[in-house]
Amino acid sequence: MSELDPNVHPDAKREVEILAAESELYAPAAEVVSNAYLPDYLALRQSALADITAFWDARATEMIDWYEPYAQVLDDSSKPFYKWFVGGKTNIAHNALDRHIKTWRKNKLALIWEAEDGEQRTFSYFRLWQEVNRFANVLKSMGVKKGDTVTIYMGRVPELSIAMLATAKIGAIHSVVYGGFSEQALASRIEDAQSKVLVTCDGAWLRGKTINLKDIADEAVRRSPVVQSVIVYQRTKQTVRMEQGRDYWWHELMALPIASSKCTSEVMDAEDPLFILYTSGTTGRPKGVLHTCGGYQVHIATTLQYVFDLKDDDRWWCAADQGWITGHSYIVYSPLILGATSFMYEGSPDFPYPNRWWSLVEKYGITILYTAPTAIRGLMRYGEAWANRHDLSSLRLLGTVGEPINPEAWRWYHRVIGKERCPIMDTWWQTETGGFMITPTPVVPLKPGSATLPFAGIDADVVREDGTPCDANEDGYLVIRQPWPGMARTIWGDPERYVQQYWSDFAKQGWYFTGDSARKDQDGYFWIIGRMDDVIKVSGYRLGTAEVESALVSHKDVAEAACIGVPDELRGNVIHAFCILNNGVNGSDSLADALKQHVRTEIGPIAVPAKINFVDSLPKTRSGKIMRRLLKAQVLGQPIGDTSTLAD
Ligand code: PRX
Hints:
By secondary structure, this protein is of the alpha/beta class. Helices cover 31% and strands 22% of the residues. A hairpin with a 5-residue loop joins strand 4 (109-114) and strand 5. Helix 5 runs parallel beside helix 12. It is globular, with a radius of gyration of 24 Å. Bound molecules: adenosine-5'-monophosphate-propyl ester. Adenosine-5'-monophosphate-propyl ester (PRX) binds at residues 279, 325-326, 401-404, 426-431, 451, 514-516, 528, 530-531, 537, 542.
């Protein structure tokens, strides 16, 4: 656990902003409260905390269908390996699709998709259900069985959701790798999950250009030969190499008689694996966070319903990528479980012009928009005239996720996009938590930059290293004291690492440590400060310093490397790297460029350091651990604090 050093505040600017925004309260309009799904949410929240199992038990019957009921809500006999809804049988594809086909929702729009070039496709629940069934049968015909893993590496197309739902339908486990990752990142994730089947695209569109996903996939499969079959969805129609006997076109398989539109959902135990999603941790090795079939559904459906107040006539736009947890939980699964209509856009927010998003809100009558602070800051930069050209009156709620939102961006989002009518749901959560954990609902008074209060049934707190609660406005460790249904169950293939990573810092108390620091103000509102471990959030993307460092040292000229996150106006943080070069190699601008390119091909564009410094030594503890804190203090021009553990 890293120490809280008051001399080196991770982000001094945020400290000042928090203090200013703490007393700025935005109460919900009477109309918002009376229309809310739960007008008396705050009272319910109190009673939920008094008995969390009773709260989640009620949600499990209310939100989803079970083939067979569970015998026990929570089994805590082998902590921290909690089990939820023990003995219950279900399938997420049943709740997301099968059950709606038998109701009027059969003909309701499940998904509206717009491509970067303006092409449009829509899927009713019936059509989506058929497509999922057909692809599920394709997967079966390729030998995929219950418990097998399928790796999915695609751009932002509906077929990515279809592939996920089809995998879940037949009881297999999906591992979606974000389409912005490169060869090595994909290869190591395929290898770790031991996937025999890979689903990919020929290419993806980004800012009018194509990205050669299939080429990257080919290289990854070469490095990780466990893959036996590759299914390729044709998106860009660029020329790709198809290896006979290994590679198959999606559309050709879907045209075969085996791709029947009938497929029964596999009966899954509540605790059977649903998916693996790799995320960054404190070591360079990818960490496969495992979520299971029962509790995850209950958590994501409840949180989406309560927080974003979904109604049948809403048009929900979660502007993330399906490849991250936000996309898994709130693009693909929970909107479908709730029977909602979702909108999805393929490209980037400012392409071809900075008004693209606002034109989409107007064109599709989006009612709820959920995005990341970095996107808001990016669009804010172009000035409000771009937004003001559009009728945004359909919007009724806004949301953010992924990193702390600075009050300035919050106020802009509230005023320019929400016209001071739309409450902003600032949702704090993690890949590991499965769904929202600290968040308002529409009836909770807001403070710009605060995720407000723990969700009903979530027992979060800010504590000192010894577990005692922090005073108001004292920075501390953000912990979760009681289990919740959407919690990750383990790290794929490495249960010890799961215990070590999340449950060892407060082992005595049995609490989950989030890796974040936070503070509560005098009203009990939570303010997230940032990561305390070696994880950096860049534009909301989560990167481990160790991942970037190992990519750097894999270059022939680099002997040692250390990376830190440095606060950045636009991207939240950027990475600065410090490299010791091999004997005889001299640092130069062209070498810095070559190293950046190297990180780009090893991990992906999101991991490229903003700055590379060549140094002769790195500050280390006597036991040899790099003291990144000192590098950071130096870059920020802050006092370097306690150096008693420094070796040299
Ligand atoms: O540091 C917190 C930050 O994102 C981390 C989790 O990252 P990831 O697993 O990629 O999941 C992101 C999407 C759920 C957290 O440990 N974070 C997430 N949401 C917020 C946030 N920080 C401040 N405010 C938020 N609303």
